[in-house]
Amino acid sequence: MSNTKCFISYSWDSSSHKDWVRFLAERLHNKGVYTFLDQWDLSPGSQLTKYMETSIRESAFVLLVCTRNFALKADEGKGGVGYEKNIVTGEMFNNTNSDSKFVAILREGEPKASLPSYLKSKVYLDFRNDIDFEANLEELLRHIYGEPKYVRPSLGTKPKLDGNPFKNGVQAYLGQTFDQIESLIITYGAQVISRKNRTVEVYLNDRSVIYDRPKRKRHKPVSEGLLKEFSKLFKEDELIY
Question: What whole-number distance in Å separates Cα of residue 92 and Cα of residue 89?
Fold first, then answer.
């Protein structure tokens, strides 16, 4: 993204506060973000309200530097901050991209006191501690340039899920056929030792169990017994889920 434009809205709390805001604007400007700042752009005779309206509407991002005084002026509709609030709230109502355009920057005080009412529900950047300025500036620049630090990975495909009769209780699989249940148990560590003379011998946890191989119509009763047996074996070894 080239020639990205940004407007900084703030209150003239003190000379030191104005210096900090100008420092932030300089850093953004040096990083390729064209920044509208009244300290640079206005001179005696300038149309202040027109400047506010034009700068906010032409900017891809508006940074709202929040302090207790800023919140008070915005909530009471006083001064330039109050006028800018009317423009911002109008855009927030009509602009579908307003969630990303208007960025609250907490510079001083607690959020409850320093965020005006119309910004209290927004996620803010915490610039209160100057020690963290560079890290916060990077986060702000990542937002402006659309390059987040963490990106959601591509959505994978649904895996092939094997049933586990011991995970959600044996009752979940009582309707399965004998061969299906036998296959599931093999998947979880059992071994079929032999199949002969209409019997099936299954080995698990150092012991074997022999079951009569049922006729097709008798699958369910035998499957119940087989599941109960292996459920008991897993419980004995504390392997039950």
Answer: 5
